[in-house]
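[Meeting: bench + compute handoff]

Bench side (C.D.) handed over the final construct sequence. Compute side (W.E.) agreed to return the predicted structure before the next meeting so the bench team could plan truncations. Sequence as handed over:
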Amino acid sequence: MIAFKDFLRKKNIEISLKRYGIDALSAMAQGLFCSLLIGTIINTIGTQFHIPFLTTPVATVIQGEHEIEYTVGGIASAMSGPAMAVAIGYALKCPPLVLFSMTAVGFAANALGGAGGPLAVLIVAILSAECGKAISGETKVDILLTPLVTVLVGILFSWLLAPPLGKAAMWLGDFIKWATEQQPFFMGILVSVVVGCALTLPISSAAICAALTLTGLAGGAAVAGCSAQMIGFAVISFSVNGVGGLISQGIGTSMLQMSNIVKNPCIWIAPTVASAITGPIATCLFRLQMNGAAVSSGMGTCGLVGQIGVYTGWVNDVASGAKAAITAFDWIGLILISFVLPAVISLLVHNWTKKMGWVKDEDLKLS
């Protein structure tokens, strides 16, 4: 047993919740952002501003009797599987030959996982990366054996695990979306609070939303919750963090407050109450839906990705005929849910917690 632990330590294989549930999951979200999400944004910009280079196919791939055309954004989106797997491999500190082999692993897991591909990529990439790390540098034919083992293990696990994992993720995501449609008030609160808190915690709300394909009304609630956390913390800490803190939290991440939350959990009350209020308002009053990329649901106001995702969904719905037009009511709802209500509610609740003596402004100071 001691020898096995020493081997794992030598290979930098750390079997822990932090390594797999935080580091790998967060890296996967970044890979997804740099492929699927960026591709979606590029397509939206090209369509809205009528830029030929971004809307005209730049590559054609022949598959059997079919020809698949790709725009610039389409190419980026198509690489989401490899991008996620390489990002996970990087987070797991894979040596070069293992890391580069993750491209094939990610493609296989994402393709076989279907709509639940991100969850399949997460599990399969972790398994194949650790197997690749275990064999790396152990033989004189490392350049041949390491990628061979990594790719074969990855494709084997993709074949065995990706389809059921993808179906399970789709089922859970569909159940959450169905439940939100049936009970928009209570599920609006639940989804908004849970996903919003996940964004502030050192885990990836974006990866969770992507893995569960959390779109539609549930996706709108997730956007509301994430926005409430980011704008909430940005506004209530303005007196001690200034403009820099407002920007870094408001369009960056509320995760910056995590160390302060550990010191005084009461500072989390205001943004969480804001998310509990804006969630059902989004689902019941404005019927805010995320019909863009699912990963956008868990981004909130980070780079305005959540709002761009909602807008992209509007554009797609109008193009498909599912929506007649983008209305003023749509814009008012998006602005109120994303910015105005989180700021106002968080300030009111924060002032109340200060009067109760639970929180001081200095508790929110970023180091």
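W.E. noted at the follow-up: The first helix runs from residue 2 to 10. C.D. will use this when planning the next construct.
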